[in-house]
Design a protein that fits this description.
The protein is α+β, with helices and mostly antiparallel strands. The termini are far apart. The chain is elongated. The protein has a four-stranded mixed beta sheet, covered by helices on one side. It folds into two domains: 90 residues, no CATH class; 144 residues, no CATH class. It is 49% helix and 9% strand.
């Protein structure tokens, strides 16, 4: 076997894939979109991971990276290993894949799993579609978001300091605290603390109603179950009502049907 650093053009990638497609696994289109996005925005770097070919220039490892090059129409540099035995495929990718939380943790960010979840919510929130799920954040994009939003770590530390009673996941609480703290940190602290602990809440206030709704959802009653996006929606709705010093008889969010509401934007 021999290894070298090569420029992988879309044409070269297409040629290798054409010789390989009958032998390789099915293409994960979502993964290809993530890789192509990283290549297009310059996040893809020469990282030591190799494209591995057998003696007939058929791809043993690197199919999705090559598909990403073709989809982005942008060349990349990569290590290319040629002449690997055909049966080497069975011994590749046998290790545990890194989770988004692993990636953040390795970069020195504590509560990596929780912050990764909050960043995914933030990505959808900023895109204006909390239901958007067809394009997941790549590890590179997630790490870039974490660096662009250092306050997320502060929100995570605050959520950790008050604990979590299970009404929402820590990722949800971190997201809500971060979004609201960008408007008023002191109010965001009080809002999340009140939601988690219930201390000092007056009956009938938006925050009290939010907490009661989440307790009902946690009870296991199927008629009271709520999707994560709906929990985030009523949380931000309660925040806005609290900021406006308005009370409502019933706190709800209509995510579908004729009276469908737009996902709230924190104010």
């Amino acid at each position: 076997m021999r290894a070298s650093i090569e420029t992988i053009t879309p044409e070269k990638a297409t040629k290798w894939l054409s010789a390989t497609n009958k032998r390789n696994r099915n293409v994960n289109k979502q993964l290809v979109r993530r890789i192509a996005s990283d290549i297009e925005n310059g996040s893809w770097i020469l990282n030591g991971e190799a494209i591995i070919l057998n003696g007939h220039d058929q791809v043993i490892d690197g199919q999705h990276r090559l598909e990403g090059v073709v989809a982005s129409e942008v060349p990349i540099k990569s290590i290319v290993v040629r002449g690997a035995p055909a049966d080497a495929f069975a011994t590749i990718d046998c290790g545990k894949s890194r989770t988004p939380g692993d990636v953040l943790g390795i970069s020195g960010i504590e509560m990596g799993n929780e912050i990764a979840a909050a960043l995914r919510f933030l990505d959808k929130y900023e895109a204006g579609s909390m239901k958007r799920s067809n394009v997941a954040l790549s590890h590179a994009a997630l790490l870039s978001m974490a660096k662009d939003h250092p306050g997320m770590a502060e929100s995570a530390n605050y959520v950790r300091s008050i604990g979590n009673k299970g009404l929402m996941t820590s990722g949800c609480l971190i997201f809500c605290h971060y979004v609201c703290s960008k408007i008023n940190k002191a109010d965001a602290d009080d809002f999340i603390k009140g939601l988690v602990t219930g201390e000092g809440l007056r009956r009938g206030t938006p925050l009290h109603q939010l907490r009661e709704r989440l307790i009902e959802a946690r009870s296991g009653n199927k008629t009271r179950n709520m999707r994560t996006s709906d929990k985030l929606a009523i949380a931000l709705k309660a925040w806005n009502l609290t900021r406006e010093q308005r009370n409502v008889e019933f706190l709800a969010f209509r995510s579908h049907g004729r009276s469908q509401e737009q996902f709230p934007v924190a104010v």
